[in-house]
């Protein structure tokens, strides 16, 4: 469903070239849970940016549902991210002046009562059913990240990309967040690509891949 | 569930940040509305004050500073000085008094020497009779002597004025002060027509009495010679020389004074012909002799002279009909009376009503001699003031340069009549005053204020654009995470820019509406409490001011704010925001 072929991403700083991603081949099957682990600076986040269309590769290609990103203009990639992908980042990036439910609805592609009901359902699932109207500054860090997870799932994305979603959380809360994402995959609603430096968070993954110096290997 | 990114959410969830910006902008717009409206009010008031020129053309003698210094009044003062010298001759040693003493002494001497000579006695009695009459003729001269003494102090003031003007030729204040004092003093110094007439009759009588007296004296001389030839020894009588020449010189000086005083009140030469010729210009509705004058009034931009029309009675009615004005209270001024009718706005400006007084006794800048009583209040679209032609032209102190004519062109013939009048005047000592001239004058007076006002608006606009632009940028930086996330999850860049455009547009639009609304409220209050009671004019709903002149502020603020924020949004890299670890 989502594949990368001979992917490379180079960063040029001054006269030198850093290979953030170096000849990576990867396939994410529909409904699968793929974990990417590796130390800081190993290129795992960069690989996720390439797969999600946030960056264009220096070499190689990415295809999603048979469409090569090379043939998709920038606007098309935006729509793809907006409609088919979901994102959870290390920080929650909630909008401070919106309530928890409204923040979830920021991720919605269409906004109607059904979607709003689904947003509320998601918040209930993540344990925030009684905090729908709370603002981010009224929630704990773990709760904020759970709202961010709900925001990533509200539009039923085909692939959810989670980049260090537990890095700023304690172990237990991190586990809850991963479980929420894994639950989405388990329901068969979409695939899951989780980037983390903590292997303990990838116990439910179908595949765990190791990134080191931009190269990918099986963990 | 609505759009969480709607403007409604943004404004009402960010009140503490949005409202101060709206407040600052609204207050600035309020300031612009008020200052601009006051300036527009000054212009409109000036236009209204001289609005009568929109339908008429005033033709008046050219007035220059040289004419002010060399006016007939000055000439009259010189003539009066000459009269004084002649009075001194008449009244001094060897003059009429000593002549009288010599003549009256003759009778006594004759009576003592020749008691029997009846004929000589009769002639001596006749001589005494004529001498007595001559002395009586001198009585009016006493009054003149008093006036001449006051004239000497007037001359000193005039010399002082000339010195002041020589030292500082561009300062008109000494000249104005002199003319005001001059008018008041001259009225007491210069004799009026009736007094001059009596004086001239006295001098004529004196001249004939002197001739009669001389005949009597010559008869006495002949009687004495006859007596002596008949053997009677009668001493020769001392016959003084005749005063006729002295009296005649005085008479000439008096004639010059009379002519000079007459020229003060007579109009500029050529005026009568101009009146007659103007009436024959095609397209002329009517032509009127005018003894125009001015009232000092307070306008928003300072003091100004409101023009008064000195018309005859039918002319006053014609002028009112021309403008669609009417006498709302009281009546029009009577002929040959120091009365005035003025528009109610002017009355309010001067804070007078029926029975009130105007004139240089009340306000030294009024060009009205002494005091005029307000007898009528005029109401209508055009502000006018009316005074009687005959009263003004028969007043010594109303100089010829304030006598002219008014030509009213028919509708559609204004330019043609103007051109014809200009051709008629040619190089003569008259000039035209019409609406285009007056309007240009007003505009040139207000031009400087306009420049200052525009500079202020520009300054306020630039400062506000910078301040609000900076606030906008600070606010935007606080929201970088929001925009970074939205860009990362697939919101289009132009969509984000459009969102900021709407947000900024809403803020500036709200500021604009609130500022303009506040401006209208403040101006309405000011209009009721100050403008109207002072006879000024203000259009509270001047859309030019409310819309066009205030628009640069929100527009510049919006463009500047959007320019900087839009530029940052275009260059926004969502990954750099996502990867921030702060």
Outline of this structure?
The complex is a heterodimer of chains A (219) and B (582). With 219 residues, chain A is α/β, with parallel strands linked by helices.
Topology:
The complex is a heterodimer of chains A (219) and B (582).
Chain A lengths: L1 E12 L2 E13 L4 E5 L6 H9 L6 E6 L2 E2 L5 H11 E4 L11 H7 L6 H13 L15 H13 L5 E5 L7 H16 L4 E6 L10 E6 L2 E4 L1
Parallel strand pairs in A: 3-8, 3-9, 6-7, 7-8
Antiparallel strand pairs in A: 1-2, 1-4, 4-5, 9-10
Chain B lengths: L6 H7 L1 H35 L7 E5 L3 H5 L2 H20 L4 H18 L4 H20 L1 H29 L5 H17 L3 H37 L14 H22 L5 H8 L5 E8 L1 E7 L2 E10 L1 H11 L2 E5 L8 E5 H7 L6 E2 L13 E8 L5 E4 H5 L9 E7 L4 H12 L4 E4 L1 H44 L1 H9 L4 H39 L11 H7 L2 H19 L3 H5 L4
Folded structure, characterized:
The complex is a heterodimer of chains A (219) and B (582). Chain A has 219 residues and is α/β, with parallel strands linked by helices. Chain A has a single domain, classed as 3-Layer(aba) Sandwich (Rossmann fold). Helix content of chain A is 32%, strand content 29%. Chain A is built from six helices and ten strands. In chain A, strand 1 and strand 2 (16-28) form a beta hairpin. The model of chain A has no long low-confidence stretch (mean pLDDT 91). Chain B is an alpha+beta fold and 582 residues long. Chain B folds into three domains: 7-47 and 448-578, no CATH class; 69-265; 269-433, no CATH class. Chain B is 65% helix and 11% strand. In chain B, strands 3, 4, 5, 6, 7, 8 and 9 form a seven-stranded mixed β-sheet that branches. A four-stranded antiparallel β-sheet of chain B has the order 2-10-1-11. In chain B, a hairpin with a 2-residue loop joins strand 3 and strand 4. Chain B is rod-shaped. The mean pLDDT of chain B is 81. The chains are: A alpha/beta (219), B alpha+beta (582). At the A-B interface, helix 2, strand 6, helix 3 and helix 4 of A face helix 1, helix 17 and helix 21 of B.
């Amino acid at each position: 469903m989502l594949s990368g072929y001979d992917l490379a991403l180079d960063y040029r700083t001054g006269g030198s070239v850093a290979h953030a991603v170096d000849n990576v081949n990867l396939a994410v099957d529909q409904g699968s849970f793929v974990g990417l682990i590796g130390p800081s600076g190993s290129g795992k986040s960069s690989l996720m940016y390439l797969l999600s269309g946030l960056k264009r590769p220096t070499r190689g290609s990415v295809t999603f549902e048979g469409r090569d990103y090379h043939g998709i203009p920038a606007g098309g990639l935006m729509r793809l991210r907006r409609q088919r992908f979901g994102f959870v980042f290390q920080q929650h990036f909630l909008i401070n002046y919106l309530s928890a439910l409204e923040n979830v609805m920021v991720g919605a592609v269409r906004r109607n009562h059904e979607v709003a009901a689904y947003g509320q359902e998601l918040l209930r699932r993540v344990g925030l059913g009684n905090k729908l109207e709370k603002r981010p500054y009224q929630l704990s860090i773990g709760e904020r990240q759970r709202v961010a997870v709900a925001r990533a799932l509200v539009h039923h994305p085909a692939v959810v990309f989670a980049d260090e979603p537990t890095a700023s959380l304690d172990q237990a809360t991190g586990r809850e967040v991963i479980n929420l994402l894994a639950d989405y995959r388990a329901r068969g609603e979409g695939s899951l690509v989780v980037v983390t430096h903590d292997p303990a968070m990838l116990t439910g993954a179908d595949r765990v891949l190791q990134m080191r110096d931009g190269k990918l290997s099986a963990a | 569930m609505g759009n969480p990114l709607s403007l409604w959410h943004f404004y009402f969830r960010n009140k503490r940040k949005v409202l101060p910006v709206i407040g600052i902008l609204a207050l600035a717009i309020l300031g612009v509305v008020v200052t601009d409206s006051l300036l527009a009010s000054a212009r409109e008031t000036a236009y209204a004050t001289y609005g009568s020129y929109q339908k008429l053309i005033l033709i008046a003698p050219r007035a220059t500073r040289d004419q002010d210094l060399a006016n007939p009044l000055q000439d009259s003062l010189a003539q009066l000085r000459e009269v004084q010298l002649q009075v001194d001759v008449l009244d001094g040693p060897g003059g009429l008094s000593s002549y009288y003493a010599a003549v009256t002494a003759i009778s006594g001497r004759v009576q003592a020497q020749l008691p029997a000579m009846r004929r000589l006695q009769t002639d001596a009695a006749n001589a005494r009779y004529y001498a007595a009459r001559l002395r009586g003729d001198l009585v009016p001269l006493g009054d003149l002597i008093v006036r001449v003494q006051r004239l000497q102090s007037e001359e000193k003031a005039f010399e002082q004025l000339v010195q002041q003007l020589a030292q500082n030729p561009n300062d008109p204040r000494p000249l104005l002060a002199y003319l005001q004092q001059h008018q008041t003093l001259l009225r007491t110094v210069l004799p009026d027509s009736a007094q001059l007439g009596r004086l001239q009759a006295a001098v004529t009588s004196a001249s004939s009495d002197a001739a009669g007296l001389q005949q009597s004296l010559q008869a006495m001389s002949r009687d004495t010679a006859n007596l002596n030839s008949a053997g009677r020894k009668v001493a020769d009588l001392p016959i003084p020389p005749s005063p006729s020449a002295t009296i005649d010189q005085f008479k000439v000086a008096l004639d010059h004074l009379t002519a000079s005083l007459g020229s003060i009140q007579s109009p500029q030469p050529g005026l009568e012909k101009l009146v007659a010729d103007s009436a024959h210009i095609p397209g002329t509705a009517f032509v009127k002799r005018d003894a125009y004058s001015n009232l000092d009034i307070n306008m928003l931009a300072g003091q100004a002279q409101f023009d008064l029309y000195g018309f005859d009675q039918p002319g006053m009615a014609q002028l009112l009909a021309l403008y669609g004005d009417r006498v709302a209270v009281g009546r029009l001024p009577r002929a040959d009376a120091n009365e005035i009718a003025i528009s109610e706005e002017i009355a309010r400006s001067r804070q007078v009503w029926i029975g009130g007084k105007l004139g240089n006794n009340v306000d030294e800048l009024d060009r009205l001699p002494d005091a005029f009583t307000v007898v009528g209040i005029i109401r209508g679209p055009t502000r006018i003031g009316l005074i009687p032609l005959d009263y003004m032209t028969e007043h010594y102190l109303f100089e010829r340069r304030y006598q002219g004519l008014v030509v009213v062109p028919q509708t559609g013939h204004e330019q043609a009549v103007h051109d014809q009048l200009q051709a008629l005047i040619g190089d003569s000592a008259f000039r035209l005053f019409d609406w285009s001239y007056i309007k240009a004058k007003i505009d040139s007076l207000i031009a400087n204020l306009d420049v200052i006002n525009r500079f202020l608006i520009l300054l306020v606009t630039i400062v506000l654009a910078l301040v609000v632009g900076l606030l906008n940028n600070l606010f935007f930086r606080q929201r970088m995470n929001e925009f970074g996330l939205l860009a990362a999850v697939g919101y289009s860049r132009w969509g984000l820019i459009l969102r900021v455009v709407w947000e900024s547009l809403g803020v500036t639009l709200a500021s604009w509406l609130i500022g303009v609304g506040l401006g209208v409220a403040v101006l309405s209050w000011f209009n009721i409490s100050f403008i109207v009671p002072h006879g000024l004019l203000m259009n509270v709903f001047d859309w030019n001011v409310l819309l066009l002149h205030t628009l640069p502020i929100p527009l510049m603020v919006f463009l500047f704010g959007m320019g900087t924020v839009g530029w940052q949004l275009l260059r926004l890299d969502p990954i750099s925001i996502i990867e921030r670890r702060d």
